[in-house]
Write a structure and sequence with these properties.
Length: 239
């Protein structure tokens, strides 16, 4: 909390304590007045010794005891007020510290993930070139299509169709780790618009660059080359 906020809270606490003390004193005075009035009625209607004792006690030790109890009560209420607001300040401070710690942890995780992604891409440079020249390109887990990042993967699949240029939809099946490729390789099933299975392809998002090559039996639509005009969508990619 800022210094200005602290001063405002302290002022509020002082005002509240004054209100508590005034309230307790008024309460004691009301009790004293009510009992005296009641005692006076008794005294007017009865000459009993009990009423005389009551009035005498209220004019002496009884009044002192009443206000003593009242002052103790006021002190307790003030301490409870301080404790309550001190707890709120601590909770607010703890919450702020927790938020900062969480933010820093997330930033560290993102940096770590970025560094790991760059490491994977660097490790895949050689096999990426080898897969691009292979007839099994994109058709086996050890020879996937390499793209640069998840957004480009969705764009690639969005533009991938049959050789007859029939649109396809792709459904994610699983992620696979292999010894020869850094990072997961994702497996997708390709479906025709009538719902029949067309084939299976494998994609890695840890490529150093985007590819313009389609696996055997597939074709990239002309939309894929229109990088500046096409809107990246994933309507036909279920991941």
């Amino acid at each position: 909390m800022s210094e200005k906020g602290n001063d405002k809270q302290k002022s509020k606490n002082r005002i509240m304590k004054v209100v508590i003390w005034i309230g307790v004193i008024l309460l004691c005075a009301l009790i004293q007045n009510a009992v005296k009035k009641h005692g006076g009625i008794i005294n007017a209607n009865s000459s009993s010794q009990a009423s005389a004792v009551l009035i005498a006690s209220l004019s002496g030790a009884g009044v002192a005891l009443l206000y003593t109890v009242g002052f103790i009560l006021a002190g307790i209420l003030c301490k409870l007020w301080d404790k309550h607001h001190s707890g709120n300040d601590n909770n607010r401070t703890n919450t702020d510290e927790l938020g900062l710690e969480l933010s820093e942890t997330m930033a560290d995780a993102e940096n770590s993930q970025t560094n790991k992604t760059l490491e994977f891409k660097q490790n895949n440079k050689q096999i990426e070139k080898e897969c691009a020249d292979s007839p099994e390109y994109g058709l086996t887990v050890n020879c996937p299509v390499f793209v640069n990042g998840k957004n480009n993967k969705k764009r690639y699949l969005d533009c991938l169709c049959t050789k007859e240029e029939e649109e396809l939809s792709f459904r994610y099946k699983k992620s696979i780790l292999t010894k020869s490729i850094s990072g997961f390789v994702e497996q997708y099933s390709a479906y025709r618009m009538n719902g029949s299975l067309y084939g299976t392809i494998f994609v890695s998002v840890y490529g150093t660059q985007d590819t313009a090559k389609a696996p055997d039996g597939y074709k990239l639509s002309t939309r894929y080359s229109e990088r500046d005009s096409i809107e990246i969508t994933s309507d036909n990619v279920i991941s």
